[in-house]
Amino acid sequence: MSSITGPESPSERYRASAERAAEAKTYLGGFIRSLAFELDDFQREACLSLQAGRGVLVAAPTGAGKTIVGEFAIYLALQRGLKAFYTTPIKALSNQKYSELADKYGADRVGLLTGDTSINGDAPVVVMTTEVLRNMLYADSSTLADLGFVVMDEVHYLADRFRGAVWEEVIIHLPSEVQVASLSATVSNAEEFGAWLDTVRGQTDVIVSEHRPVPLWQHVMVGRKIVDLFAGDTTFDEIAPAAGTGAGTSATVSATVKTADLSDRPGFEVNPELLSMARAESQMNFRGRFGHGGRNQRRQRNQRDDAQQAGQRSPVRKASRPQVIASLDRQDLLPAITFIFSRAGCDAAVAQCVAAGLWLTTEQEQLIIARRVDEAAQDIPSDDLDVLGFWSWRDGLLRGLAAHHAGMLPTFKEVVEKLFVDGLVKAVFATETLALGVNMPARSVVLEKLDKFNGEAHVNITAGEYTQLTGRAGRRGIDVEGHAVVLWQPGTDPAAVAGLASRRTYPLNSSFRPTYNMSINLLAQFGRPRAREILESSFAQFQADRSVVGLAKQVRSREESLAGFSKAMTCHLGDFTEYSRIRRALSDTEKNASKTSSRARKSVTEDSLSRLLPGDVVDVPTGRAPGLAVVLSSDHHSREPRPAVMTLDNQLRRISTQDVEGPLAPITRVRIPKSFNAKVPKSRRDLASSVRNALRENRPPAPPNRNDDFGRAAALPDQERKITELRRELRAHPCHGCSEREDHARWSERYWKLRQETDGLVRQIQGRTNTIAKTFDRVCGVLSTYGYLETSDAGVLTISPDGQRLRRIYGEKDLLISQSLRLGAFNDLDAVEVAALASVLVYQAKREDRGLRPKMPSISLESAVDVVVHEWSALEDIEEANKLPLTGEPELGLVWPIFKWAKGRHLQDVLSGTDLAAGDFVRWVKQVIDLLDQLAKIPSLDPRVARLCGEAIKLIKRGVVAYSSVA
User: How many CB atoms within 10 Å of residue 595?
Assistant: First the structure.
């Protein structure tokens, strides 16, 4: 493994000069002459490896110039008459790289393939998303002919838990003669990843550069004042040698740990001014919480109440977003990217700056921006401009301000990126997705907070994420230095910020697991024995095997300790190990009796919730909105039922076991009209009125005696007899009368605790051995259950016709999609309905957006959705029984928007009544198009369904969707 750090000696420089003279006659020499700058040492070393026929893993900070290595791979391919593929994790990055390469080599020699876009796919250089290449490999596409090089940009994305497995599939399945250039952010286990690449791809050189070409300075903005984070003149490059390379360190590590590594060297201390500020804030909050006084008591109490509402108080008045940008502008630190972990926050930041009258552009720049924006929008129908927020977006751009997030129209994002790179937009407010690959370097990067919402909870950002975000600061060839600025918030710990800044690497951990599509393709191409061997060559299994060595060492050490504990608890009256076993059995039985009772109560409660029907009126005792409510939709099939209800004050919510203390039975019942629409206030008011009338009339729940079934628990196991027997056995044991019994018991507790831990380690070793192959076997079991795999008379697994269809379906719900086709869910639909049903198999709503099941636009679509939902429920049961990850629930939130869009309705009408942003809608429509395109190309598909899929694509690939493919 090569690590490029520090200056070279004179002899090294001389040797490098001689090497460069020799290089001038090689492919690399020709490539260097085409550049307007000199290669860095790590770039040259990686290019030499590629030229010598070896693969490379290049790990370097953001902005260090890794992509030059990828471009040399492309140059080599063209010079040798071979093809080169450049893969990226996201379509936006693919589009951007396509534009760059087309400008450099000519549009006739460069192609682009993403899920919804195909341009010049047979070109010698093709940019594509990694999924497209994976699909090519499984389909044995003719496009792979003469492929010489594959560049895997942002290869560290293989750690992504949703899509990361695709990277490993590609690396494993690429033909052995193809050279792979893997480009990664700085990761702490690059050597381990490189060792795996060496195993599966042949000789692979690992080249790591810790050097940033533009020095990065760390700051904290206190109020409107920018303060250095470190006391001395400490840049990004100087921190790591002092601090080491922690892996994924979170911002919550204690200050003593964070500063310990840095305190040994002068100049690396955290700025005393910041530490003093943190102490003053801490003291203020302490006095505010525990202060005393006479006449000030009420005021202090009010202040404490305010502090509880706002979190913590601070002696610093936090600067507003316009003030932050103005401060950066005064200190010549623009252009800047401010990372805000919220789409709404990004849009609000632009609006706040506009409202504050902030202008960052000259009149000449405004003219250029206006021309470019108007050119980009000329193909957008004028009717769509208002719903897209075009005019406010344009106004912000003219001032040099913009947001950048996934909810924006792709065309708008691309305009922002180009204007920012050209220095016309000076301040961008972005979500963290911008940090992934998109080329938008800035002079400064601002982090509003050091925590974010990950979809489930607010968590601190890791050191790796901090490095990715701040790595955007400092434009090579433009800026002398870059600046990372963290905004002071109440409760900010300067030492925590220093800890993040000093640990800039993170581990690369595999997220690989066999899917249905992957498994059946492996079986079709290689057979079961070879497929298991291939899966065992994954990076996931490679890491698991390495971890087993350390676990085995721990087991040996603990076994030695157990022998000592066993000796210490020896009793002269009898076998204390046996006595200890009885004591533990008694304790465990008593605990289990308590748990069994608790589980029975919960089971009865869940059963009562699953029995509730639409129209039942219940009295919810606790939760967010206790009181009377009417059930709007039942929830029979979920493991944890959450029926939807409407309270008498017209609130819509779901109730769960957390909202009730026992079985919940209806107290009366009303009829819900067929025309009822929960989104219409009048409908809710009318229904609430009906409930009140039913309560006044004291109507019984129907049918009669139905309440008798609610709260009826199964008889609990009788465990008292066993407890009594164990107590009797304990008292009769000889060791029970030992004078040193409790001393022996303490050693026994230690023994059993360590025994449990040791047994757990042994189970971990067993679980990690062949873990991927075992999962593959369970996946094959599910496929056999559904008839996708058949066993021949000779005992060999073969692929059935339905299995052949599954081979061409790629997606998180691959088996559910295949089953939907198999059961005829698409058969009775027209093209519009086919598009709507496809959305059910693609769309993923945010958890908080999931509401009541909407009424479908047509009877045939309602029947088709019922087929899909019923099949998903059955599939989930089978997956649960086989201990496999569960297929996501079909989502109906996109059905109406897609249906309206396919009908040709106006964009504003389509998005009305939804929480979908225009950019989100376009993104989901493109994914629907991708699925429809997959289905249309399945050879064995019913020709009518295939034709309808093609027609559906034409219906929805229009307007904003059509002109948002490639700018």
Answer: 10
- Angstrom distance (rounded) from CA 442 to CA 580: 66
Return the closest-CA partner of residue 542 out of 89, 57, 168: 168
Neighbours of 349 (CB within 10 A): 27
In this predicted model, what pLDDT tens digit does every residue of 802-817 receive, in sequence order? Answer: 999 999 998 889 999 9
| Segment 206-216, tens digit of pLDDT | 999 888 788 88
User: What is the rounded average pLDDT of the residues 415-429?
Assistant: 91
Describe the strand order of the beta sheet including 216-222 as a list of residue ranges: 225-228, 216-222, 482-487, 444-447, 336-339, 427-430, 401-404
**Whole-number Cα distances in Å, 939 to 14, 134, 520, 800, 831:** 62, 19, 16, 14, 19
Taking the C-alpha atoms of residue 650 and residue 446, their distance in angstroms, rounded to an integer, is 43
**pLDDT of 264 higher than 60:** no
* 644, 851 contact by CB (below 8 A): yes
Residue 551 has pLDDT above 70, yes or no: no
What is the rounded CA–CA span in Å between residue 905 and residue 916? Answer: 16
| Closest by Cα among 282, 246, 253 to 495 | 253
> 529 is written with which tokens?
């024995």
702 vs 616: CA distance, rounded Å: 9
> Where does the pLDDT of residue 454 fall: very low under 50, low under 70, confident under 90, or very high at 90 and above?
low
**Count of beta carbons in the 10 Å neighbourhood of residue 590:** 15
10 Å CB burial of residue 609 (0-12, 13-18, 19+) is: buried
CA distances, 569 to each of 312, 578, 874 (Å): 52, 11, 53
User: Contact at 8 Å (CB) between 465 and 184?
Assistant: no
At residue 382, does pLDDT exceed 70?
yes
DSSP secondary structure, 345-399, as one string: HHHHHHHHHHHTT---S-HHHHHHHHHHHHHHTTTS-HHHHHHTTHHHHHHHHHT
What is the dihedral sign for C-alpha 582, 587, 590, 595? negative
Q: Which residue has the higher pLDDT, 167 or 270?
A: 167
pTM (whole model) above 0.85:
no
Q: How many helices (H) and strands (E) does the chain have?
A: 36, 25
* Residue 618, strand partner residues: 629
267-281, 294-308, 699-713: which range is least confident on average? 294-308
For the chain, how far is it from start to end, CA to CA, in angstroms? 40
Q: Which residues pair with 403 in a beta bridge?
A: 429
Question: 682: number of CA atoms within 13 Å, CB side?
Answer: 1
Question: Residue 644's pLDDT is what?
Answer: 87
CB 756 within 8 A of CB 493: no
Cα–Cα dist 707/665, whole Å: 6
Question: In this structure, what is the dihedral angle of CA atoms 877, 510, 165, 3, given to the nearest 10 degrees?
Answer: 180
- Among all chains, which residue has been given the structure tokens 């029979």? 636
Written as six digits, the tokens of 963 are: 């002109």
Q: Please say whether the beta carbons of 447 and 221 come within 8 A.
A: no
The number of residues in the chain equals 967
Here the tokens at position 167 are 């990277």
CB atoms within 10 A of CB 255: 16
> What does the DSSP assignment read for 880-940?
HHTT-PPPPPP--TTHHHHHHHHTT--HHHHHTTS---HHHHHHHHHHHHHHHHHHHT-TT
* Cα angle value 318/323/329 (rounded, 5°): 135
Q: Report which secondary-structure segment, H or E, holds 549.
A: helix 539-568
List the alpha helices (DSSP H) in 157-271: 165-173, 190-201, 236-243, 255-263
Which residues, other chains included, contact 286 with Cβ-Cβ below 8 Å and sequence gap of 6+? Answer: none
Please check whether residue 895 is in contact with residue 856, taking contact to mean a CB–CB distance below 8 angstroms: yes
pLDDT, tens digit (0-9, with 9 covering 90-100), for 135-162? 888 888 888 999 999 999 988 888 777 7
Buried b (16+ CB within 10 A) or exposed e, 859-871: eebeebbebbbeb
